[in-house]
Amino acid sequence: MQWQNPPSIDRHLDVVQNNEDHGGLLLGASSLTGCQWGGSLWYFDKADSAPDVEKSAAGTRLDAGITDGQWFSANNVVIGLDSGCIELWELVDNFHTFNRTFMAKEHDDMVNSISVTADKTRVVSGSQDNCIKVWDLENLQSLHTYKAHLDHVHCVCCHPTKSDIFLSCSQVGAILLWDTRKPKPASKIDKSPLESIPTCITWQPNSEHNVAVADQVGNIIYKDIREKKSLLSWKSHSRSVHRLAFSPDWPNTVASVGEDCNVVVTRLTEDQSIEIYKDESHQDFVQGLSWMKGSSKLVTCSWDSTVKTHCISALSQCSENGLPTGMET
User: Fold this and answer.
1) What is the DSSP string of 80-137?
2) Which of 103, 184, 235, 280 is such that its CA lies 20 to 30 A from the CA of 297?
3) pLDDT tens digits along 31-49
4) From CA 281, how far away is CA 33, in angstroms rounded?
């Protein structure tokens, strides 16, 4: 039985996702009771209303802790749980009620990461069971199970325009490029100069081949996956980076959050990385990160039970390619 509108939001805020269609905010939270994790899923009409439970439009209790979540339509979300489950939820009753439409437990350990394909018809999940699964969102079934990684899969990220291509990284340090159209779909990507374990990876929105990768000691690289040498490398954090995201409006600008409790925004040029924003106000691990499309704002959530909206004022002086106005090349 689904428990709608719980009386409180769980302490650890793990997932935050803006909806590009209507501007609403998805929030996922978890808490430990005894020796078992539980969770909850929330929707807010406006980002600045979160995480006030009295201002939430909808909420529901989850059977396990939430690890990741993503919109795949204006009113549908897919989430990953620490129980190994993948669940689909629909917002009905004018965004006031969550209705679970699908649940499957095919991973043998917690789901660490999920990513929706560009055409919104499939979702990729990566788990601590070392497996990657590809799910059909239309027919509600798993299509493929891949076991190329030798340890926990930390992150999966689908290509922004090509629905058959995605990236993954794992605990043993491997970064793999996947093309599900091929009989041998995985190929290894060079991670140099990263020496530590990659923790998260993301595609650059306006590029077919460029990505950013971060590791567990706070280093980030920016590279063309066709080349061995990285284009740029820098250190934004003192501890593990949990999430990376390029701005959809300024594609040469990437935000990062991590276990040092910091939020950092970096502008990338042809030959250097420039830190244009840093916020140190979170008091615990920063887990969630989402840009607000059509603005210079991003939203973060943390295990300190706070949701913060950051206005990156330096972007207002930049053109779409991330360079200062009047200095485009």
Assistant:
1) EETTSEEEEEEEETTTTEEEEEEEEE--SS-EEEEEE-TTSSEEEEEETTS-EEEEET
2) 235
3) 987 777 899 999 999 999 9
4) 27
pLDDT band at 317 (very low <50, low <70, confident <90, very high): low
What would you measure as the largest C-alpha separation in the chain, in angstroms?
Answer: 58
Long-range contacts of 90-97 (CB under 8 A, 24+ apart): 91/43, 91/58, 95/24, 95/43, 95/45, 95/57, 95/58, 96/57, 96/58, 97/4, 97/58
Task: Identify the pLDDT of residue 256.
Answer: 98
CA distances from 112 to 81, 100, 169, 314 (A): 8, 20, 11, 33
Q: Could you tell me which of 107, 192, 214, 115 has the C-alpha nearest to residue 160?
A: 115
Q: pTM for the whole thing? A: 0.92
Q: Which residues of 67-91 are buried (b: 16+ CB within 10 A; e: fewer)?
A: bbbbbbeebebbbbbbbbbbbbbeb
Note the pLDDT of residue 324.
Answer: 40
**Per-residue pLDDT tens for 222-260?**
999 999 899 999 999 999 999 999 999 999 999 999 999
Answer whether 25's CB lies under 8 Å from 59's CB: no
Phi/psi for 14 (5° steps) reads: -110, -30
pLDDT at 322: 47
Looking up tokens 């990437």 gives 254
Contact between 216 and 194 under an 8 Å Cβ cutoff? The reply is no
Nearest Cα to Cα of residue 69 among 108, 35, 98: 98
